[in-house]
Design a protein that fits this description.
Pfam families: SPRY
Radius of gyration: 31 Å
Number of helices: 21
Biased composition (Basic and acidic residues): 552-562
GO molecular function, one term: ubiquitin-protein transferase activity
Distance between the termini: 50 Å
Protein name: Ring finger protein 123
Largest sheet: 5 strands, antiparallel
Strand content: 5-15%
Shape: globular
Helix content: 40-55%
Strand order of the largest sheet: 4-3-2-1-8
Domain B30.2/SPRY: 1-108
Length: 731
Amino acid sequence: MQIGWCTLSCRFNQEEGVGDTPDSYAYDGNRVRKWNVTTTNYGKSWAAGDIVSCLIDLDEGTITFCLNGQSLGTAFNNIKTGPGVAYFPAISLSFKESVAFNFGSRPLRYPFMEGYLPLQDPPTADLLKAHRLLGYIKNVLSVTIDAQEEKLLEKDSAAWRLHGEPTILITLAHIFNYFAPLMCKVYLVEDVLMNFLLGILEGGGSVDEHPLIQQLLDLFWLLMEANEGCPKLILSSIIPLMIHYLRLTTAILRHEKSRKYLLNNLTFDVLRSVVFFYIKTPLRVKEAGLEELIPTTWWPTHFDKEGKDEREPTDESSDERLRRRAYERGCQRLKKRIEVVEDLQVQILKLLLNNKDKTTGEASRYIFLNKFRKFLQENASNRGQHPTALCPPEYMVCFLHRLITAVRSCWDEGNRKSPSSLSSEDAYVPPQLFYNGKVDYFDLQRLGGLLSHLKKTLKDDLSSKANIVIDPAEIQAASMDDLDEDEESGAAQRPFGAAAMGGALARPSWLSSPTLGRANRFLSTAAVSLMTPRRPLSQPEKVKVRTLAVEQRTEEDIEGSHGNDGLLLGRPQEEPDQPITDKSLLEIIDGIVMMYNLSVHQQLGKMVVVADEVHEYAVALKDTEEKIARCPARRADILDELQKSQNVFAEKLNHLSRRLAWINATIYSKEKMLDVYWLLCVCIRTIEHADATGSLFAFTPEFYLNVAMNAYSALKNYFSPANGMEELPGN
């Protein structure tokens, strides 16, 4: 990526971008260079999420760049200026790279340097008007009317209620007639409203202690919705900033109508959903504040015969022990800071998993569940030969851990209300989810093969063991599907000319079309008939079940009602007839298992590289120190080179040890290890319950077996030496 300025005379192509032509100037933070036909070193390395400011001074003829508000110095002098020369912002991107520009339509994150202005002027007049009107609103909220004394009295604005004095409500409605149109502008929402909302939370305390935000949101929906959907525009504008202000996000999501609007329309697209739960691993230790949190660094200096780190070396000196303990205390400080953020993220998820908020339509949990399933489908269907990273694996890891914590909390809360149900410690996914058509697995492989094939060959077992009767139309559809596959494979093996042999007997082309194949697959899942397993039937009583699209499902389709078991239709005889938990939570856990299989395990393996680097540099440093000790005094040249290497290795280890502390706190902590262990237990119990059904075990998705094996591998290989398997329950 090269970003900077260019003139109209520049002509770019696939080979030449910004900075590759005479009248274009660029900064590349990936290669840490500046470009204007030729290239030289410049600036600092950038990372995803960084903000680059591009400053051009046409009076002095200079171009300067800033990274996260810090000037990188003048990059170019004596640029071409004069009549007929105009410069425009420009960028060259590689495949999969993306960037968001702000020319002044939103408040700048970092104040611009003196003498510079954004390309787009701020709406100064509207800003003054919005601040004045907001002041009126605050004044009205902080007064009450004394009817007897006929005067206004001051009160705490947090005590204001929507259903209060009608005079105040009418006054607010009049103010909002002028305020609402201004809030349709993104700049004003961010500069005026966001700062006001953040100011409410500035005093600290829990979000519950600030009900004024809820009252304001009530007002917005009541008085502004008619104004071009103004509350929706406000929430759309706030979303990019909510990621940086989790306490404000929590406060907004506590408002039911706002929460459901965000869930339905904004929060859960492919990537935006999980950004709220991501804790970014810092590449630059200084900017992350790790030097202050962990002033003393440490790394292993004792190795066993195999070259591995010794966890508790017997010959550790007192200085080494003090240094190690100081480092561990710093790691604990860092972990506590991170836990504050993680707790807020879990609170957000628990709000999204609320299944009691039905006053304004479908409960949040079922909106979340359907969006979550769609999210999994989009990522699962993207794992071909050339997959595109829809959701980066590092985001998935954080999302998985927060979701496990939130789901287990909801599960155990239900268990306290219904003690006869299972606790989350004993969680598993019942086998009927795998064959009753209620949960879509997006054509993912089953242990016994394709679903259409299994339903055809195991129809008698489904009928006898799970009271599921396959409609004859489904058998025919499955047979046609198989015929399509046979025809396609046969055509691939025959010479081209042979396809026309047989004249009138040649199979019509439409019969082998992909469209018909898809239709057959749809029919094969849509034509399942199920018997109610609660009473013996002399004649199979068929209940038509149609596999709904993810976004079409309702609470009844998931939880069931009036004898309908929802997701648990078709309980096999071997499956215990006891309450487990809310069926919606079972599907979320099923999604968590799928998510681990998609990319989480792969990412856990990647992050081990940092620990390996620490080990390699520690070994190299120790080897260098031993060489320095053996180096003869007369070889000052060699000693000088060795000491330079020693300084390089020590500096690198200082950086890596702090970065490793962050990774151990966010990815390889004991709590994260217990999450993976819990997931392993869920998979093992699920496989055991599925295995008890005999032949129906073939319907189990293959990824359950993969996750069981990979989770065990992760516990054994990835979490040590920070945490060992001996710390797991039962050891």
